Amino acid sequence: MKYEAVTIKDIAKALGLSTSTVSRALRDSHEISAKTKSLVRNYAKDLNYRPNPIALSLKEKRSHSIGVVVCEIANSFFSQIINGIESIAYDKGYNVIISQSHESYSREVLDVDYLASRSIDGLLISVSTETNNFGHLQKLHEQGLPIVFFDRIINEIQTHKVTVDNFSGAYDATRHLAAEGYRRIANVSGSDYLTNTRERIAGYREALHDSRLPYDEQLIKYCIHGGKQYEEVEEVLDQLFALPEPPDALFSSADKITSHCMRYLKMKELKVPEEVGIVGFSNQAMTELLNPPLTIVKQPAFEMGRIAIEMLLQLIESKKPVKQFEHKVLPTELIIRDSSTGKIK
Q1: For a FRET experiment, which of 45, 101, 121, 278 has its CA 20 to 30 Å from that of 264?
Q2: Long-range contacts made by residues 147-150, C-beta under 8 angstroms, separation at least 24?
Q3: Can you give the pLDDT at residue 283?
Q4: What is the pLDDT, as a whole number, of residue 287?
Q5: Do domains 62-162+301-330 and 166-299+334-340 have the same CATH topology?
Q6: Among the ranges given (73-87, 200-214, 331-345), the one the predictor scored with the smallest mean pLDDT
Q7: Does the keyword section mention Magnesium (predicted)?
Q8: What is the pTM of this model?
Q9: pLDDT higher for 236 or 32?
């Protein structure tokens, strides 16, 4: 049996009233008596009546829906961001529609087009690792759709943005490894045209300089798909450990890449931290339970989601065009554990 939602016409027919009377009663109009209002509301409650969101959106020119595009919901970092978004959105009367790009540019374009076609009031997006063309977002922005970027941003589009201090996070991680006696510190990153990748590489380089360690281009490897598949990370690690002077430490700048690095080191029977130290950007709770426990750069993901949705609602609900935008940068936290503290000096 096909489900059919209860409509105002159904209520009107059952109660012997006009549809306009039922509609006004549900809106608590002063034109309708208290007795009729009570009758209509009680009957509507018994039938589990809900206003048609499509009809409401046509009337109000608002859908009260927010679109969110992330690479993967299963990624703990992004799931925590979504929790932050929802903690504000639902209290403000907005529904959240979530789409996953799976680190694919073409999938991201489809996701964004679909959400826009559903008449969302605004869009929150962290672009995929493949996204180096942002015409699909620029077009919607120029058409007036409120957009806020978080984590992976596009600087060329003038709107609100919220990120972490990628430079400092990478700097602190690399300086820590150097202080522990590691001298060949490799950097395994996401795609090289992402803003957060470039910022983390810059922090890594500055830390090497301040630690009086040479910068070696061969020790930087990029994963164009963000480590989506283990084989992508395995390939770049094979290249690193085949060098005449292989790395004695790894700094991984993405959650999934970090997990795959740990898997690789275990499979190759490389002792952590005695032979290879490792620090990674990660928000996974399980990192504390690994053997050895993983040193991580933790990001305030929930707070990022909360700030991003507040920024978007400010754009949506502003009575006049917003012309001044903010880029909010949140601090990271280096949590030191055993994976980076056992180098034999």
Answers
A1: 101
A2: 147/122, 147/123, 147/312, 148/122, 148/123, 148/124, 148/308, 148/309, 148/311, 148/312, 148/315, 149/124, 149/125, 150/81, 150/124, 150/125, 150/126, 150/304, 150/305, 150/308
A3: 87
A4: 85
A5: yes
A6: 331-345
A7: no
A8: 0.83
A9: 236
